[in-house]
Amino acid sequence: MLKKYMSILVCLGLSFVAGVQSNSPFYEPIRKGDVKRVKELLHKHDNKIDEADVALAALRGQVDIVALLLSQGAPLDEEAMRSAVRGSCENRKLARAYEEIVQMLLKARAPFDKETLCMAVECSTPAIAKMLVNAMPNFSRDVTTSSRYKK
């Protein structure tokens, strides 16, 4: 249920990670970009990585933290990719960072949906949109068999 509400907030352009997941021990270090503190927390056995932690790091363009979380087997859901694409739409100065994050997420097989692809096409960099198009299974078949493209 919480994921459904987070998805709605993302679609409305609100940051779901701003307040909803603030109880995570990783929230503040990720928000601040404190790689050292994130490493310290990862070494503690009682702290588990959450999908929202990866999404926050992706949204903020924290390449090193995303790489660190992925190397530790962080769980992934659609919010991670959606957050990376949304971040690239909001902060063009970090375009290369977001492109690198999207590549890492794709390599880690992070799921994403057509809405994320549409967001990438509408406002992200062409490189990110192209990466997602190439990664989407059956994309060309979906487009060519769609009833709106048939005559």
Topology summary:
Blueprint: H1 2-11, H2 27-32, H3 35-43, H4 51-59, H5 63-71, H6 78-90, H7 95-107, H8 114-123, H9 126-135, H10 139-145
Helix pairs in contact: 4-5, 4-6, 5-7, 6-7, 6-8, 7-9, 8-9
Would you give an account of this structure?
The protein is mainly alpha-helical and 151 residues long. It has helices at 2-11, 27-32, 35-43, 51-59, 63-71, 78-90, 95-107, 114-123, 126-135, 139-145. The longest helix is centred in the middle third of the chain and has 13 residues, at 78-90. Residues 1-21 and 141-151 have low confidence and may be disordered.
CATH level 1 class label:
Mainly Alpha
User: Which stretches of 5+ consecutive residues score pLDDT under 50?
Assistant: 1-21, 141-151
H/E series: HHHHHHHHHH
Q: What's the total helix number?
A: 10
